[in-house]
Design the sequence.
């Protein structure tokens, strides 16, 4: 919450963050993956499933690039869903703070 308040008071800080809107590149990828997954639930179709797979694959690529790696590479399939959940919780907290301080920052 504090980072959103700081950005509301000092907009120049945005230059240090991904696309001036996201706290982390993984947040952008997490939102895209979530949107793709919701699309599959709302409209099940092979095309939407392929889009969702691409969105989740993109999230996995970005998350593996920006997060600390687990001890063993084979642990990534276990770690990635937890990292996605963490990113979505962070986005939720930043969304709440964005509404409170009237400054969009995810």
Sequence:
């Amino acid at each position: 919450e504090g980072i959103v308040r700081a950005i509301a008071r000092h907009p120049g800080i945005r230059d240090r963050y991904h696309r001036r809107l996201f706290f982390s590149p993984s947040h952008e990828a997490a939102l895209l993956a979530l949107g793709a997954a919701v699309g599959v639930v709302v409209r099940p179709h092979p095309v939407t499933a392929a889009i969702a797979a691409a969105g989740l694959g993109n999230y996995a690529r970005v998350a593996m690039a920006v997060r600390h790696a687990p001890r063993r590479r084979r642990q990534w399939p276990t770690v990635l869903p937890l990292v996605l959940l963490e990113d979505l919780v962070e986005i939720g907290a930043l969304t709440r703070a964005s509404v409170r301080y009237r400054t969009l920052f995810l």
Summary: The radius of gyration is 15 Å. Helices lie at 2-9, 25-42, 46-66, 76-101.
